[in-house]
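#random but structural
TW: two for the price of one
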Amino acid sequence: MKKYFLGIVLLLMTGVIVGCSNGSNSSDNNSATNSELVEKTKVSVNEAIKVYQKNFPKADIVSIELEKHLGKPVYTIEGADKTTEYQLNINAINKKIKQKSEEPLDEEDRSEAKTEKLNLKKIISLKKAAQIAQKAAKGGKATEFKLEQDLGVTFWEVKVVNGNSETEVQIHAQKGKVLKTEKD
């Protein structure tokens, strides 16, 4: 009986050790796949905006984000009208809607939505934003993109990973000028 119990314990410990080592390797693989975010993205920002506006025609867009979800690039677009906040997740390869949600705005969110509306005229492409951010970070790969607005300026916030270091680069969305870099 003791040998049987000891065998089960050893088997479980082996499973835990193998599971832990596979988990650490998967994070390395994930960073490698993140480096291909721009290359894998087939849907432009402007196309994603059109999909959002078709679904929520009266909503102002307040943020656009592009990240990897389960190995695939996905846009998350958030917006609001006078009473409701909307979110749409769009597959950035084929334009299919992955998730659609809406919820009522509280009073604080209503005032924020008015001041955070993005200026979507003549924004630079993801590819251009990635090139500018990688140059500002002195190398690495752009792994996340977020289009936001603050103090009347719409900007790309791009996360660049180079080995173990991360740099966030803010780029004016229309002019392509680096506004700020912050190394973590």
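TW: number two ↓
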Amino acid sequence: MRSTWLQRGGAGDLIVVFGGWALGAAPFAALTGPQDVLFVEDWREFGALPDLSGYARRTLLAFSFGVGAAGHWIAGYGDPFDRKIAVNGTLAPAEADHGIPPEMVEATAAGLSEASFARFCRRAGMDGAPQIDIADRQAELRAVIQRGRAPDVRFDRIWLSKRDRIMPPAAMEAAWAAQQNRVEWIDAPHVPFADRPTWEAWL
């Protein structure tokens, strides 16, 4: 687990982004706003976040595999967040009915190459592919499979993309059945942020 400040200017509000697998901070590059933004990635193992106590309001935005990671992290470290937003992910990311079938996740790991990752990025709706460490990202996928379903977490808003080609929309709908009153469907790919270019629009 690695954390990087995307914006840090002494704001009263903080957004902590739990990112998806292998895409880095690129999906969020165009988002603007006055908030401080801490980006967290790499779900091979978990660790503590920096001290967040100085912020008046702390919001979690969990994206893709970061949603399941958020559930596990909160179970282990507590919940410091005033609001929690989920985007195109579930608490069971490597599960056939509520995420991606684990055999497909394993196949992605086994066949991972720069070429296959570039295809993945196109399917996700990215314009390009970030640099990738093949061995580390294989290990991350296998850690997600082995970790399994996260404990239940209540989110304040859940964004799901109708045109998601990474996380199956039907599986996401089933996964969030108990929180369906918080779900908002959008006509977007897996990486949906281009159409709403401010942080506040997602919160």
